[in-house]
Amino acid sequence: MARIRLDHIRHAYSPELAKANNYALREVDTAFEDGGAYALLGPSGCGKTTLLNIISGLLTPSEGHVRFDDRDVTMLTPEARNIAQVFQFPVIYDTMTVRENLGFPLKNRKVPKAEIGPRVDDMLRRIGLAAKADRKARGLTADEKQKISLGRGLVRSDVNAILFDEPLTVIDPHMKWQLRSELKQLHREFQMTMVYVTHDQTEALTFADKVVVMYAGEVVQIGTPEELFERPQHTFVGYFIGSPGMNVLPCKLDGGEATISGERIKLPAAIGRAKSGKTTELGIRPEFVSLVPRGQGIPVKVEKVEDIGSEKIVRARLGEHRVSAILHEDQSVPADADIAFAEERLNLYADSWLVARA
Amino acid sequence: MEKTWNNKAWFFVLPVLLLVAFSAVIPLMTVVNYSVQDSFGNNQFFWYGADWFREVLTSERFHDALLRNLLFSAIILAIEVPLGILVALAMPKKGIWVPVCLVLMALPLLIPWNVVGTIWQVFARTDIGLLGYTVDALGIDYNYVRNVLDAWVTVVVMDVWHWTSLVVLLCYAGLVSIPDAYYQAAKIDGASRWAVFRYIQLPKMGRVLLIAVLLRFMDSFMIYTEPFVVTGGGPGNSTTFLSIDLVKLAIGQFNIGEAAAMSLIYFLIILLLSWIFYTVMTNAGNDKPMTGGAE
Questions:
Q1: Residue B172 to residues B94, B169, B220: CA-CA distances in angstroms?
Q2: Which of B277, B169, B136, B264 is nearest to B220 (CA)?
Q3: Most exposed among B89, B149, B201, B237, judged by the fewest C-beta atoms under 10 Å?
């Protein structure tokens, strides 16, 4: 087990792309603490799989260093780094039984036979496949196969980290929940550093202690799920985390007030004094937007109300901008209404980065 | 209620039925018809029962040709399959060399059989052929016209030259369909090059390899044109395979009844052996039935 330090990593897939300043990873400089459960969250093409392959050693970064504890492993092969990786599609060795699959990494590392047996048996029990130990692995279901991939990593008790590359993509929805909680359980038992790549916020937020949000080849925020919700450091985080995402409204600052498409909003003192950037935006989560009687707030045009059972999502239009609000299920939505923002929940962004909060 | 089904649909099958009848069933039945009769000049035919079959099955000539054919198929399979796999493994997986390699590999397959035969007939001659002349000049006494072993080597090498590409192309198709994740996982599991081949590449090639073996077996068992052009079945009868023998019998000796019986037996042997290959190879990787235990 190890602390993983990513020291100013940059990566381009070819020298030509690097010359054109077209980096898949623009710059990542961060560390994953020993024994932590991390999720790399971001949309497709944001560089999260590139980063994962750099940690595992399947890719060598164009610039920067990877360190496990104090050892520089940048130039080492995946095998020498002693990590495990679970891929998007379950990788199993078709002709082997479940038991042989789990023993394979040990056999390759010349672990004595007497030791392989008990360790494989123990792993079979932990991943719940003891009853199918002597079946050919290829006949199993997708989630069982994915458990085998995972087991092959965990069976080597000395691995530095386990990396997951969207491991639940091909798993049925009802099995996803179960597998994810089993994963969490295994993490508690083994206390290994786990890095989990996903584009699904629910998966990231339920699995990880710390979520690393990536956007366009950069890490935009690392934080607990709560921090990401309450204090999005970048408008992308606000928009990507939460459903619906944060309302981000372009505005103009002027003497303690903000103007959003002609409507003036009084701001709390902490925000009002902030400097504006090339673009200045006001961010507020739909949870903190309320409906008030006409004349008491900001006039909007309600376009749609989605009743999702436990709550209502109101989609409205403020000038040319869209605003959503989440209301309690039994709250009625009048035809003419204004909206009000909870002042203490306002965030101010200059050039997409958080500059002030109430 | 209107009937939702009727038997008119059968009419749609009619064209295919006619086509198959003319292309396969009727010719085959003609052969069956000949195989139970003896023919004499002036188109006279007499009922002969199963005697032709008995005669063919007990004739030494047939046994020898059959053994030669089995030996030939065994040799070329033993060479072409491993060689084909090796070449496929060595071929590039991406880049501009892929199409170049593929075209080069496909070339021998596009050459008509008797052209291949003629090429090798000339190529291997000791007086004017590049190969024959070179081998002779190296001090090796080589002459495929006189020496049985030399004739066999020539025919086998020619077949390997002509058909290994087919195995290569099929194996290559199997190889490129393996997702990268398998190789990455194997790297992480610390698998050796041999283990990657044994546990990833070979199992993933299994299906296409089965097709390759079947095709090569059937083709080599039916081989006619190339050895006919190169050696004409000689020296003596040493390269007279079943099909060459069959033609000698049917057209050379005009013994239609015996030839018909022989071709039916020939056909059944190919069918039987192909079926055995297929069953053995598809069952090889399957789960054995579990004794006891849950599920």
A1: 12, 5, 21
A2: B277
A3: B149
CA B105 – CA B103 distance, rounded (Å)? 5
Whether residues A33 and A177 fall in one domain: yes
Contact A136 B287 (CB under 8 A): yes
Q: How many domains does chain A contain in total? A: 2
Beta pairing partners, A40: A197, A212
3-state percent helix, strand, coil for chain B, nearest multiple of 5: 75, 5, 25
Question: What is the C-alpha separation between A244 and B174, in angstroms, rounded?
Answer: 45
Indicate whether A71 and A178 sit together in one domain. Answer: yes
Smallest CA–CA separation between A109 and chain B, in Å? 7
Contacts of A95 in chain B (CB under 8 A): 199, 203, 285
pLDDT attached to residue B162: 92
Distance CA B58, CA B143 (A): 34
Q: Please report, rounded to a whole number, the percentage of residues in chain B having pLDDT higher than 90.
A: 34
Same domain? A91 vs A219: yes
Per-residue pLDDT tens digits for B212-242 = 998 999 899 988 888 888 888 878 888 888 8
Sheet holding A289-292, edge to edge: A289-292, A338-341, A298-299
A333–chain B nearest CA distance, Å: 52
Question: In whole angstroms, what is the distance from residue A58 CA to residue A53 CA?
Answer: 5
Q: Which candidate in B187, B189, B204, B290 is best for mutational testing of the A interface (most A CBs within 10 A)? A: B189
| Alpha-carbon radius of gyration of chain A | 24
CATH classification at residue A310: 2.40.50.140
- Count residue pairs from A and B with Cβ separation < 8 A: 63
Tokens, residue A113? 């036979």
CA distance B56 to A221: 85
Domain final residue, candidates A205, A236, A267: A236
Chain B partners within 8 Å of A152 (Cβ): 185, 189
Of A137-141, B70-74, B107-111, minimum mean pLDDT range: A137-141
Nearest chain B alpha carbon to A59: B184
CATH code of domain B67-282: 1.10.3720.10
In a domain, A212, yes or no: yes
Q: How far apart are CA B167 and CA B220, in angstroms?
A: 13
The residue among B183, B188, B198, B291 with the most chain A CBs within 10 A of its CB, best to mutate, is: B188
Whether the pLDDT of residue A42 is over 70: the answer is yes
Which residues of chain A make contact with B183, given a CB cutoff of 8 A? none
A191 and A298 assigned to the same domain: no
By the 8 A CB rule, do B231 and B148 touch?
no
B199·A93 Cβ contact <8 A: yes
A241 within a domain of the structure (yes/no): no
Summarize pLDDT for A215-270 with one digit per residue, the tens: 888 888 998 988 888 889 999 998 888 888 899 888 888 777 888 888 888 888 77
A319: which 2 tokens?
């000038």
The reply to whether A242 falls in a domain is no
* CATH code of the domain covering residue A21: 3.40.50.300
Strand runs labelled E in A33-158: 37-41, 63-68, 71-72, 84-86
